[in-house]
Amino acid sequence: ETGVTQSPTHLIKTRGQQVTLRCSSQSGHNTVSWYQQALGQGPQFIFQYYREEENGRGNFPPRFSGLQFPNYSSELNVNALELDDSALYLCASSEGQPVEAFFGQGTRLTVV
Amino acid sequence: KQEVTQIPAALSVPEGENLVLNCSFTDSAIYNLQWFRQDPGKGLTSLLLIQSSQREQTSGRLNASLDKSSGRSTLYIAASQPGDSATYLCAVILIRRGDMRFGAGTRLTVKP
Fold this sequence. Notes:
The complex is a heterodimer of chains A (112) and B (112).
Chain A: E1 5-7, E2 10-13, E3 19-24, E4 31-37, E5 44-50, E6 53-57, E7 64-68, E8 74-78, E9 87-94, E10 102-103, E11 107-111
Parallel strand pairs in A: 2-11
Antiparallel strand pairs in A: 1-3, 3-8, 4-5, 4-9, 5-6, 7-8, 9-10, 9-11
Chain B: E1 4-7, E2 10-14, E3 19-25, E4 30-38, E5 44-51, E6 56-59, E7 62-67, E8 72-77, E9 86-94, E10 100-102, E11 106-111
Parallel strand pairs in B: 2-11
Antiparallel strand pairs in B: 1-3, 3-8, 4-5, 4-9, 6-7, 7-8, 9-10, 9-11
């Protein structure tokens, strides 16, 4: 059984650019959630996908969008990057809700 | 609005000590509470999950308790070791939303 994997691990982008982050959920898990973690803070909920449909969204602007594929892997897209988007982006998968969530190692995004 | 607070923000103890980390939340309408460990720049590792109907969970040297009525959880670490040094985060899953709300974490340092 493989765990949650995220790619890439590190990324540097310029303000105004667009970025796509990827997440492969743990085998058998149909729910994927994305979180943003700024330095020294707890993760903040961005959105959640359940069986390819968005199933909840946090307080993030529309330039944060996502997608879940039939194999339950997921993408997080961020358009028009801002300096404040620099953070660790975490993906979590679970077998439905509300059960134990398992996190990937994260993608460190730096916007310059 | 659900607020999750962790006290203390940082803790330094000598090896071998028993210690308690605290987590409080303002809304008792939660499905469950989960404790995580995070090493610097890394993802989250699930330690313990306590469902709302449970009072405590144990895993090895770790014991977590939950008191929904008072909005509190504690993580007890017995016989601390230098390898326990990390940031410990608690998170609640909200009944109305399904996402996880995190505290800012307690940064633990165990000195040899």
